[in-house]
Amino acid sequence: MDIKDIQNLIKFVSKAEVSEVKYKTKDFEITIKTPLAGSDAVYAQPAVYHTAPQAVAAQAPVATSAPAPAAEKAETASDDSKYITIKSPMIGTFYRKPSPDKDVFANVGDDVSVGKVVCVIEAMKLFNQIESEVSGKIVKILVDDATPVEYDQPLFLVDPS
């Protein structure tokens, strides 16, 4: 690994806002730690999201219209709870195809088995095949093609039955 590769790795880590990255090969190891890593923003934003809907619901003038969307959200949440989520194991760019001229790895309604490739995630010009850890049928694709994904971000919903 030359100095240019190290500089590119540092730029990638700073843009990704992660706290620590370790890169290791059989004869080389580098650890990059950042002091801020955006962890304050991650914890501050959910508090804002949780308080804003409560304030809106308390100020809603029509009481009959407010419970209906809440009931729909609860029903959707209970429907999604029976599905297993395939999550991103890394930060990178999500692709549904191995290359632009090839077919997608998986569509809604396709059966997947353990070890079947469902997508690729590009990180630092490396294309990492993401394999399914569960068997079942894909019911929803949660990420658009060629969009950035975060670590542990849900990618697919799979019905295991």
Automatic annotation (TrEMBL):
Domain of life: Bacteria
Cellular component GO terms, alphabetical: acetyl-CoA carboxylase complex
BP GO terms, sorted: fatty acid biosynthetic process
Keywords, ordered alphabetically: Biotin, Fatty acid biosynthesis, Fatty acid metabolism, Lipid biosynthesis, Lipid metabolism
Domain named Lipoyl-binding: residues: 83-159
Pathway of action: Lipid metabolism; fatty acid biosynthesis
UniProt KW S-adenosyl-L-methionine keyword: no
InterPro entries according to UniProt: AcCoA_biotinCC, Biotin_Carboxyl_Carrier/Decarb, Biotin_lipoyl, Single_hybrid_motif
Single annotated GO MF: acetyl-CoA carboxylase activity
PANTHER family cross-referenced by the UniProt entry: OXALOACETATE DECARBOXYLASE ALPHA CHAIN (PTHR45266:SF3)
Biological function: This protein is a component of the acetyl coenzyme A carboxylase complex; first, biotin carboxylase catalyzes the carboxylation of the carrier protein and then the transcarboxylase transfers the carboxyl group to form malonyl-CoA.
Protein name according to UniProt: Biotin carboxyl carrier protein of acetyl-CoA carboxylase
